[in-house]
Amino acid sequence: MLTNLPEPLITFAGYKTSIQNCSKLTVSEYINDLVLFFRYIITARSGKNPEKIDMKTVSLASLDYDLAGSVRTDEIYGYMLYLAQGRENGVRIRARRLSAIKAFYKYHTVKSRRIAENPAKDIDSPTVKPALPKYLSLEESIALLESVPKDNPNYQRDYCILTLFLNCGMRLSELVGINLADIESDLSKLVVTGKGNKMRVVYLNGACKAALRDYLSVREQNATKFGQPIIDKNALFLSSRRKRISNQMVQTLIYEYLDKAGLGGRGLSVHKLRHTAATLMYGDGEGVDILTLQNILGHQQLTTTQIYTHLSNKKMEEAAEMNPLAKIKK
Predict the structure, then answer these.
(1) What is the pLDDT of residue 132?
(2) Count of C-beta atoms within a 10 Å radius of residue 319
(3) 147 and which of 45, 166, 260, 262 could share a cystine (Cβ 3.0–4.6 Å)?
């Protein structure tokens, strides 16, 4: 992605990667958003209507520090209007793209100091209303686990995958990336690599230990049943090709089992299993506390975790009744 990019973008990407330890995917998203922004600026300044131009055809050859430093605040507002009307981007996408612009100019005005003024510093981000996460009930979660046929040659693997998702709240990339070396010998815990390549410990409950033990007992046998050696020897979850299972394959499996459990067509996905784990652990506020849940899920900001407190108002109702003045009536 960084091939043939202008220097202002390359140095910014390097900072996000080497100093802020952002993942390749995150850096790629930043760069994609900035490429679109500067293509818009170049197009608008040429007198053409950005809404009538295929942005992929716009060259960034003229993008240097002088051009980036000459961008005005009103041009950024024009870009935000273009995103809303010309590209019909929703509020979340607009907020993300503005965030990339803010990060770019903050870096080049404060860190690299190649740009004198930050035209984005006083621009408010679009207000994003947090959506309540979709999740499975306890009964639906059990039905999903029971949807894996026991005569399936990959029964232990698939059951273990579902169990870890529903009990630990892992992200897809975290589960796929687990190595044998990441697992404690007594199966009490394992280490996953989350966003920004940050590692965290995941403690395993009885259900996870049992599912993991069952899978490990047949992992090598199942993978080598045709007499060929395992290719990705350290990968926990293997495909039929004896390699680390892919994100896409796991997603396909989850959709298949959701359908078998009668839960298809509801917009559920792998990530919704993470929401399910968080919701079941929080338990209407009667389970784990919100700070513990933040650590379990690997959220950097507590505000990200607090969305699960909105799923039930039970504790707030109880708190209101606990006020001594609640019994004082006219």
Answers:
(1) 61
(2) 11
(3) 260
